[in-house]
Amino acid sequence: MKSLVILSSLVALSCGAASVELYPIAQVRLSQQSLFRGAVKADVSYVKELDVDRLLVPFLREAGLPAKAQAYGNWESCGLDGHTLGHYLSALANLIAAGEDADGVLGKRLAYAVSELKRCQAAYGDGRCDGVPKGKEIWAAIRAGDVGIIFKHWVPWYNVHKTMAGLRDAYELAGVTDAKDVLVRLCDWSIGITSKLDDGKMQRMLDQEYGGVNETLADVYAITGDRKYLDAAKRWEHKRVFDPLYKHEDRLTGFHANTQIPKFTGLARTAQLADDAARWDAADFAWRTIVTRRTVAFGGNSVGEHFHALDSFAKLMADRQGPETCNTYNMLRLTERLFEHNPKPEYAAFYERALYNHLLPSVNTEKPGFVYFTPTRPAHYRVYSTPQNCFWCCVGTGIENPGRYGRFIYAHAGEDTLYVNLFIDSELKGVLRQTTDFPESGKTTLTFLKPFKGTVYIREGERYAKHTGDWKKGERLTAERNMDYHVEMLPDGSNWGAVMRGPIVMGKRCGTKDMFGLFANDGRMAHVAYGPFGTDELVEYRDVNKPLDTTGLEPFYKIHECRYQIYWEFTTPEKVAARQAAREAAAAAERVRDRRTRDRVRPGEQQPETEHDMAVSRNSDKGFHAGSHWRHGSWFAYTLDPKGAKDLSIEATYWGNDGGRVFDIIANGIVLKTVELKGEHRGRFFTESYPIPPEVLKVRADGKVRVTFAATNGGLAGGVFDVRLMEK
Ligand SMILES: [Zn+2]
């Protein structure tokens, strides 16, 4: 908004289709002193530690060939077998193109992996090339029209897409020609598998995560020029998700987030190749609604991998599963496409935000490893992958990222217009050298390596500054941008905010206590930081009436192996004191209640239930909700001991959203009350009290009380979260 003149000149410039091209990775070199150097080094070491023969095992197995090594564990042997290899091809290709393969080891690995895939594909015979367990059965069923089979398996098409994308990158970025042949045959095979499905079946199949199959099919159209691949790409457009985008409606709430982003990248790629304005517009709307309404300061979105309601980020501020790294990786690939179509500064500003504050901090450079979730909950922590144990989606994209750091720095429109999108110490080969200590300062210097006549757009925050001139070799152009501190509040209008310095998210360290599973093992869910939440003393708030205090803050990308705070509640000391007083009053009331409690069962917890002589109906079930265990069923019963007390009542706790449940509270065979849950206390627990008449206590010789919850309408009694025998 600050630079309307410059923006309007850009709009004029971008009227022609695909007017701007990002320079390929191979033309950009990060310098040795670049901030990103450590992460690149860590990545090279990590990919070298992976054993390509172990990654190939699922492919050889499915192709009926003998394995040369032992399969990896974790996600590589519990249903998603083989997904990592495609990422591995992409990672190697990126690093090779970026000039990070001085000893040639990565190039040899890549050529070997592709030759092995070629051998597998030949053994399959029909063009198939994946490591999907039971793939033969799955693909035959889909070919015959049974798309429902896919929902019984862990995302087979997502898995295939990783191999497709890896082969594409091996060919396009590292020039492995065999990769192209394997890729084209694999795409032909995928077209064959789905060719007999009608639109209804195809769309039903697309309800399951499929990565960006539409994108790679479009890419193969670009590689071969054969239109059938572009037509195929369009068949892989998921209407349920795409249709609202064309109408500029955000219906994303509740959807699995990272399932959608790669589809949008495919949509943009198809728009680019088909020169289709409607598809461009839909892809841009998807990007815009996610970035402006669903994204936190560091560039990530979603909680527990799902899009939350637009009007509340509360769950994100409380959950241990913050935004996912591979989601942001995919958002940046989408951003690259949109930028090439229309080089708006907001695309580049988002790219920078996510690159510095989410992707870069997701790499541990000291002990190479990658992050899955980045919690926004204050005083929580992230866990890191370890090379031989962890084969998560975010390890796959994690190893791809560092080789792509040079991808967005420079772009051009024809011969006479250059874009400098990011301040990163680097060289655009043969054109210019960029020297900068950004983000320590906001300055950068461009030194021309050859004469250049034309326009250079340098992005300074939310705008491009336009420089027109005729520079000689060795001449310089300098720029500086604002690096002031400021606060950025969440898009939901709540009082949570992040402290930024320029585009950099600032964080505060909160100690290292109890960071269980910091370096993940091979457990299926080891990517989640399951240790206890940070205690209240570790969590800071900020006084909304005081000037911003930046003491103790440092760029989030510098914080590793530590609990941290990157979001603060902006409030007043009075409100915090009132909340503290309310908490203390509640704790005091709870202590009084505990003193009156003669006996207690926590339904759904094994030990307390056993100790209280539990009996249940055959359909009884238990679970965990909002921090508490529960039980329900046609009936269930416990025996509680009043320990001599006479004036008693039963207290039972329910979840306020439960409704349509009618049941009796029975004590020693006598009905005390018929309860009806109507869902009238939404979003919270509530407790009811049922006085026990003296005759109930005379029923049993041992003086105990058998409490039974029994449905009266043929439905369920409960769920009950707490049962207490109280003395008045
Ligand atoms: Zn992931």
Please sum up the structure shown:
By secondary structure, the chain is an alpha+beta fold. The protein is 37% helix and 21% strand.
Properties at a glance:
31 strands; Jelly Rolls; seven-stranded mixed β-sheet; globular; 21 helices; alpha+beta; five-stranded mixed β-sheet; binds zinc ion; 3 domains; 728 residues
- Largest sheet properties: 7 strands, mixed
Q: Which cofactor or ligand species appear? A: zinc ion
Q: Estimate the strand proportion.
A: 15-25%
* Uncertain runs: 1-18
Helix proportion? 25-40%
Explain this structure:
The protein has 728 residues and is α+β, with helices and mostly antiparallel strands. The chain folds into three domains: 1-30 and 294-571, no CATH class; 37-205, no CATH class; 598-727, Galactose-binding domain-like (Jelly Rolls, Sandwich), CATH 2.60.120. The chain contains 21 helices and 31 strands. The strands form seven sheets. Strands 13, 14, 15, 16, 17, 18 and 19 form a seven-stranded mixed beta sheet that branches. Strands 1-5-6-10-11 form a five-stranded mixed beta sheet. A hairpin with a 6-residue loop joins strand 8 (432-436) and strand 9 (443-448). Helix 4 (83-97) runs antiparallel to helix 5. The protein is globular, with a radius of gyration of 30 Å. Bound molecules: zinc ion. Residues 324-326, 372, 392-394 line the site of zinc ion.
